[in-house]
Design goal:
Elements (H helix, E strand, L loop, with lengths): L3 E3 L2 H12 L7 E7 L2 E8 L14 H13 L3 E9 L8 H6 L6 E6 L7 E8 L2 E8 L1
Parallel strand pairs: 1-7, 4-5
Antiparallel strand pairs: 2-3, 2-4, 5-6, 6-7
């Protein structure tokens, strides 16, 4: 896996917009790729019991999104979620829940008023390494 990824402005804007329209609850979903280039976002309902500070991908929508990816000839590239009131860094819970290997984790933060932050991480064995995002 690379230490730098290119994201289209369209995909970046879509992710930031999804986080903005849900300022009180974490959003979550999947990002697909073709030829290791992120191309599409699949928003998935957050079915966590405390969505303001954790996320849980809705099982039915998760399965449906993976199926659509396969039909479109895409691969799972990343899992994304937002932090409405925390920085765009993996929390202890995020590190513990990150069990899918070779998948990036995107975190969008609404923590700083008026500023949206989007960061990507490789998480392996509960250790996070930041991956640079270029537009």
């Amino acid at each position: 896996m690379t230490n730098e990824i290119k994201l289209s402005r369209k995909l970046t804007s879509e992710l930031l917009h999804l986080a903005q329209i849900s300022p009180d609850a974490e959003i979550c979903g999947l990002i697909s790729s073709k030829n290791n280039e992120p191309i599409r976002c699949y928003p998935i309902k957050n079915s966590a019991t405390e969505p303001q500070n954790r996320y849980l991908l809705d099982e039915k929508q998760h399965i449906s999104a993976v199926k659509k990816m396969r039909e479109n000839g895409e691969e799972l590239f990343a899992i994304y979620h937002s932090h409405p009131t925390a920085p765009a860094c993996p929390s202890t819970l995020d590190l513990e829940m990150a069990t899918t290997e070779n998948v990036l984790h995107f975190i969008i933060s609404l923590n700083t008023k008026g500023i949206l932050e989007l960061r990507a991480f490789k998480i392996e064995k509960q250790n996070a390494t930041e991956v640079k995002i270029t537009l």
